[in-house]
Amino acid sequence: MKKILLTVVIASGALFTAKAQDVTFGVKGGLNIAKLTSVDDTKVRPSVYIGGLVNIAFNESLSIQPELLYSGQGDKYDVNNVTVTDKVNYITLPVMMQYRIVPEFYLEAGGQLGLLVASKTKMAKVTVDVKDQTSSADFGLGFGVGYQFPIGLGIGARYMFGLTNTYKDNSGTFNGTNAKNSVAQIGVFYTFNQGFHKSSKKKHK
């Protein structure tokens, strides 16, 4: 399933890029509200995401947006009244299809590949590196909404949910082996050549 999902994402990106009319570059960042599923009494772990994006438009309504982000994920939970924090951090590559209902407002959905950067579990003052017990890649799906002002500045919200287990089989971690990533994101973005992007669209009417 992992190979099929990755192949579909890459193939779709290549196909739509070939038909693209306008390309816009930008940056984005914001707040991650992350947790791991299948964990009893889990709490969210607040963190950040930051990175760059390329928006490839085919017409005034439809575009595809690949991104390259650093994403802090994981969760928190209590063991014998002591808070345990799982810090699972990735370089993520979301590829989102966006549909603009009006020029400023869009809906989006797509897939994401996450490449593990670090994985640590902290309990009280003790931190243990569990990267070797954590899956090196994470596959997920997501959907979101956004609003962009004419100057190129925008706000967006997205929810991503993992399809693969965060930890390897028989990892021995507190979370077991069925935990999957669940991340809500809210933040801001800015596209550098938005003015050119809009003027180009007018030429295609």
Describe this structure in words.
- The protein has 205 residues and is mainly beta.
- 13% of the residues lie in helices and 59% in strands.
- The protein has helices at 2-18, 194-203, and strands at 22-36, 45-57, 62-79, 82-100, 105-123, 126-129, 137-148, 153-162, 181-191.
- It has an eight-stranded antiparallel β-barrel with strand order 1-2-3-4-5-7-8-9.
- Strand 2 and strand 3 form a beta hairpin.
- The relative contact order is 0.21.
Quickly describe the structure:
The protein has 205 residues and is mostly beta strands. A hairpin with a 2-residue loop joins strand 5 and strand 6.
List keywords for this structure.
9 strands; mainly beta; 2 helices; 8-stranded antiparallel barrel; 59% strand; disordered C terminus; 205 residues
Strand element count: 9
Protein structure class: mainly beta
User: How big a fraction of the residues is strand?
Assistant: over 45%
Indicate the mean pLDDT. 85
Shape: elongated
Give me the side-by-side strand order of the main sheet. 1-2-3-4-5-7-8-9
Radius of gyration: 19 Å
- Report how far the terminal alpha carbons are from each other: 40 Å
The number of helical runs is 2
Name the poorly predicted regions. Answer: 199-205
- Biggest beta sheet attributes: 8 strands, antiparallel, barrel
Written as H for each helix and E for each strand, in order along the chain, the element string is HEEEEEEEEEH
Approximately how much helix is present in the residues?
A: 10-25%
